Amino acid sequence: MSKSIRTPLLHAIYHRYLVDQDSPGFSERVAKHYTVGTLERVAAAGDRMARRAAVLALGLLADYESNATLGRALHDCDRGVRILAENGIRALWCRTGNRQQRMHLNRVVELNTARRFKEAVDSATKLIEQAAWLAEGWNQRALALFNLGRFAESIHDCNQALELNPYHFGAATGMAQCHLQLKDRISALDCFRRALRLNPNLEGVRAHVLYLQRTLKSQE
């Protein structure tokens, strides 16, 4: 990597976090000394430890505006950075919109987690009607629809999520799973490959790609 940004204070804050695992304390100390913009620059051009610290901090402090920064960090040469970026970017996807919209989105997530999928569809639909630009609303409805066996509708919503958030590897993976359920292996392979291009750390997706490639080749 060219010309690293020197950040000895950030190093010290991160090392303290590694010892005490105090996420709120880490966030507070970072926020006191660094802006989100500075953290984004460090995430792109800092040394290895600084990039890890910056990506962790963005995952805790930033909102959806840092989506592209963490999306690019998924391809970092350091595995630690990549893991932190994957955890952080998932959190960012729910940090968009106003307070009411975020609360509504969190409710949809809770319904899906509780496997109350019909209620999740209804709640996500209301959210989409209010904020159609909110990618995670579409993705959460897609998840609920998938679990209800409504695969074509889920594919539509995954596409919408990806249109709004081109880094959404979860939506690409979900779309692939829908195509598998519909016995369309070629489309499933294309979607799994897309997810892997967005996030090359998805080992389960990589296994699907290899399996489908072998299966389709044997059928030629």
Provide a compact summary of the structure.
The protein is built from 13 helices and no strands.
Percentage of residues in helical conformation: over 70%
Distance between the termini: 43 Å
Which ranges are low-confidence, i.e. pLDDT below 50, for 5 or more consecutive residues?
none
**SS summary, helix count:** 13
The whole-number mean of residue pLDDT values reads: 95
CATH class wording of the largest domain: Mainly Alpha
- Provide the CATH architecture of the largest domain: Alpha Horseshoe
Tell me the CATH superfamily of the largest domain: Tetratricopeptide repeat domain
User: Quick one: how many beta strands?
Assistant: 0
Proportion of β residues?
Answer: under 5%
Structural class: mainly alpha
Kindly identify the CATH topology of the largest domain. Answer: Serine Threonine Protein Phosphatase 5, Tetratricopeptide repeat
N to C succession of SSEs: HHHHHHHHHHHHH
Number of domains: 2
Radius of gyration: 19 Å
Largest sheet: none
Question: Would you spell out the secondary-structure blueprint of this structure?
Answer:
Layout: H1 8-20, H2 23-33, H3 36-45, H4 48-61, H5 67-73, H6 79-92, H7 99-113, H8 117-130, H9 135-147, H10 151-164, H11 169-181, H12 185-198, H13 203-218
Helix pairs in contact: 1-2, 1-4, 3-4, 4-6, 5-6, 7-8, 7-9, 8-9, 9-10, 9-11, 10-11, 11-12, 12-13
Describe the structure.
The chain is mostly helical and 220 residues long. It has two domains: 8-92, Leucine-rich Repeat Variant, CATH 1.25.10; 99-218, Tetratricopeptide repeat domain (Serine Threonine Protein Phosphatase 5, Tetratricopeptide repeat, Alpha Horseshoe), CATH 1.25.40. It has 13 helices and no strands. Helix 1 packs across helix 4, helix 5 runs antiparallel to helix 6 (79-92) and helix 9 runs antiparallel to helix 10. It is globular. The mean pLDDT is 95.
